[in-house]
Design a protein that fits this description.
Number of helices: 0
Order of helices and strands: EEEEEEEE
Strand order of the largest sheet: 2-8-7-4-5
Strand content: over 45%
Shape: globular
CATH superfamily: Macroglobulin (MG2) domain
Oligomer: single chain
Length: 86
C-alpha cells in the first residue's frame, strides 16, 4: 500500500458527498475508487484521471458503513479504508 497516495477522505461520516484527496504518482494516469458493502459486494465504482480533490456521490446507497479501495491503472490496490454514509 502507498500511504502517500491518499491524502485525506472527508467527512468520514457523510450525508451525500464524500471527498477523496489523492496524490497520483508521476507514472500514474488514472485510478478507480471502488466502494464495497459490509458483505463485500461492489456497490459503486468511479474512475478519476487527476490528482487533487475528487468527489463520490452517495446516489441511492443506503446509510451504513462502506469500505473503499483505490486501484491504480495496472489493477494494484494502492489504498483502502472505510467510511460511513449517514
Amino acid at each position: 500500500m502507498h500511504k502517500e497516495f491518499i491524502r485525506k477522505v472527508w467527512p468520514l461520516s457523510a450525508e451525500n458527498i464524500a471527498y477523496f484527496q489523492i496524490a497520483l504518482p508521476d507514472e500514474e494516469d488514472f485510478y478507480t475508487i471502488n466502494l464495497y458493502s459490509l458483505t463485500g459486494d461492489l456497490v459503486k465504482q468511479k474512475d478519476f484521471s487527476a490528482s487533487g480533490y475528487n468527489v463520490i456521490e452517495r446516489d441511492n446507497l443506503s446509510a451504513g458503513m462502506y469500505f473503499y479501495s483505490i486501484i491504480n491503472q495496472t489493477g494494484l490496490e494502492v489504498a483502502k479504508g472505510k467510511m460511513i454514509w449517514e
